[in-house]
Each structure stands twice: as C-alpha cells, then as structure tokens.
Amino acid sequence: MWLSVQVIQRIMCTTNTLISAFEH
Questions:
Q1: What is the pLDDT of residues 1-24, one digit of tens each?
Q2: Quick one: DSSP state of residue 1?
Q3: What span, in angstroms and rounded, lies between the C-alpha atoms of 22 and 6?
Q4: Using CA atoms, how far apart are residues 6 and 12, in angstroms rounded to an integer?
C-alpha cells in the first residue's frame, strides 16, 4: 500500500517538474 503512495508522490513530483519546464 505504501508503495503505491510513494509511486504517486514520485509521479506528482515529476509532473510538477515537467510543468515548470514547459512554463519556462
């Protein structure tokens, strides 16, 4: 169960990074 949460957090972090990259 905790593994799923960790994966989701990792995806959210990656998504935020991609969004920031595209904004700049």
A1: 668 999 999 999 999 999 999 987
A2: -
A3: 24
A4: 10
For the record, the structure tokens of 5 come out as 């949460």
What is d(CA 17, CA 9) in angstroms, rounded to the nearest whole number?
12
How far is it, in rounded angstroms, from Cα 23 to Cα 7?
24
User: In angstroms, what CA-CA distances link 19 with 8, 11, 23?
Assistant: 16, 12, 6
Exposed/middle/buried for residue 9 (C-beta within 10 Å: 0-12, 13-18, 19+): exposed
pTM above 0.70, yes or no: no
